[in-house]
């Protein structure tokens, strides 16, 4: 999931500092305002669900950089939050939050096989993205990830091609869309025989 980020230990501190700076700069507010990046959650139920993930993570020892709080004085606004100091079996790591939260983990083993095991150790994984200067390493990792789609070295949200199926994998999503593969779910096969 795009909310779970594994970073090579040699660049982790620099990554976290830049990621935190970008997160702090995001404008939370009216979704119709051109300068807003993030609007409110769609309902009290979703707001409460996200805040429960945040509370659970903090109680289990995760650290929020910055945020993890209500934003403003009214509405279902939540500050964008990056969590560190997580463990693989925390709810916020195992489940899809669908809110302005991310989990950033350092690959302390400097072993991409360990990262692949962690990334695959969840019931969910609609999509994944791999960033590396080494395209062969990126391809190796992408092939081993258990994800519905894997993007390599570019911002995932910019690429949903009409010819490439996208969607359901493990417990994420409902069905597949796009591509010839997706068209098959709208029809049926009617075999016949003639003599």
CATH topology of the domain at 4-122: Aldehyde Dehydrogenase, Chain A, domain 2
The helix/strand class is alpha/beta
**Straight-line N-to-C gap:** 53 Å
Overall mean pLDDT stands at 79
- Point out poorly predicted stretches: none
Care to count the β-strands? 8
CATH architectural type of the domain at 4-122: 3-Layer(aba) Sandwich
CATH hierarchy, class of the domain at 4-122: Alpha Beta
Q: How would a textbook summarize the main sheet? A: 4 strands, mixed
| Backbone shape | globular
Family: Belongs to the aldehyde dehydrogenase family.
Domain Aldehyde dehydrogenase: 1-186
InterPro entries: Ald_DH/histidinol_DH, Ald_DH_C, Ald_DH_N, Aldehyde_DH_dom
GO molecular function, one term: aldehyde dehydrogenase [NAD(P)+] activity
């Amino acid at each position: 999931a795009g909310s779970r980020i594994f970073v090579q230990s040699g660049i982790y501190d620099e990554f976290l500092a830049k990621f935190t700076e970008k997160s702090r700069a995001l404008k939370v507010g009216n979704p119709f305002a051109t300068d807003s990046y993030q609007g409110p959650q769609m309902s009290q139920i979703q707001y409460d669900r996200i805040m429960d993930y945040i509370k659970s993570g903090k109680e289990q020892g995760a650290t929020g950089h910055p945020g993890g709080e209500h934003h403003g004085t009214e509405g279902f606004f939540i500050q964008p939050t990056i969590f560190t100091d997580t463990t693989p079996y925390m709810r916020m790591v195992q489940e899809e939050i669908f809110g302005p939260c991310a989990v950033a983990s350092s690959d302390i083993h400097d072993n991409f096989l360990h990262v692949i095991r962690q990334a695959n150790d969840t019931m969910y994984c609609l999509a994944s993205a791999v960033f590396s200067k080494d395209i062969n390493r990126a391809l190796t990792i992408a092939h081993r990830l258990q994800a519905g789609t894997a993007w390599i070295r570019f911002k995932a949200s910019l690429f949903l091609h009409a010819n490439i199926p996208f969607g359901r994998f493990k417990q994420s999503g409902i069905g597949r869309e796009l591509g010839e593969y997706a068209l098959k779910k709208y029809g049926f096969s009617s075999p016949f025989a003639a003599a």
